From TrEMBL:
Keywords: Membrane, Transmembrane, Transmembrane helix. The chain crosses the membrane at residues 12-31, 51-70, 82-98, 118-142, 163-185. This is Putative membrane protein. It comes from the Archaea.
Length: 186
């Protein structure tokens, strides 16, 4: 199994990315009828943005710590941190897509000028980075899981991983800014 994954990392990355992005766009565009999704209590749906803000801050800390760990040669800590970051990302995305599928996107409650010149550009960059991260994360994850640690320097794991981690951290940070604009400032 490991060798077949190792030999097909780009293909598997593309397939997983297509499926993941289809799920994201399906949820955001309301492809799945609302009545087909079990509805959680209202209090839980209202708590999701706040939970996701906490998850985002935790992910920033975990990914930053994991990045620091690999810079100091702590491979086991790096792997554990990045897998934890991935788990947090999956939790964030699952909660976000669940809420959006049922409630739709949250309307910006602030002034139109702030919405136009601050909120929407930040939201757009956050969303684009999040979508760009998906194939990059799959790629480095598949490389890491299908190669022995000693062989990873011979792959693109380090080079692509730096890009993926930078974009991932930026996306999470901008997500916290979006949260603050929606739920704290306005």
């Amino acid at each position: 199994m490991e060798s077949s994954v190792r030999n097909n990392v780009p293909t598997l990355t593309a397939l997983l990315s297509i499926v993941s992005l289809a799920l994201v766009f399906g949820a955001v565009l309301g492809v799945v009828p609302e009545h087909a999704i079990p509805r959680a209590p209202h209090w839980f749906l209202e708590a999701i943005p706040h939970l996701n803000a906490i998850i985002s801050v935790a992910a920033i800390a975990v990914i930053g710590t994991a990045w620091h760990a690999i810079q100091h040669g702590h491979v086991v800590r790096h792997r554990a941190g990045m897998l934890t970051g991935l788990g947090l990302f999956v939790c964030f995305l699952g909660l976000y897509l669940y809420r959006v599928s049922l409630e739709g996107p949250t309307e910006f409650p602030g002034p139109k000028t702030v919405q136009q010149y601050l909120y929407l550009p930040i939201l757009a960059i956050h969303m684009v980075l999040a979508m760009v991260c998906i194939p990059l994360l799959y790629y480095v994850l598949l490389l890491a899981l299908s190669h022995p640690v000693a062989d990873l320097p011979k792959t693109n794991h380090r080079r692509v991983g730096r890009i993926a981690a930078s974009l991932w951290l930026t996306s999470f940070a901008l997500g916290v800014v979006v949260y603050a604009l929606l739920y704290v400032v306005y």
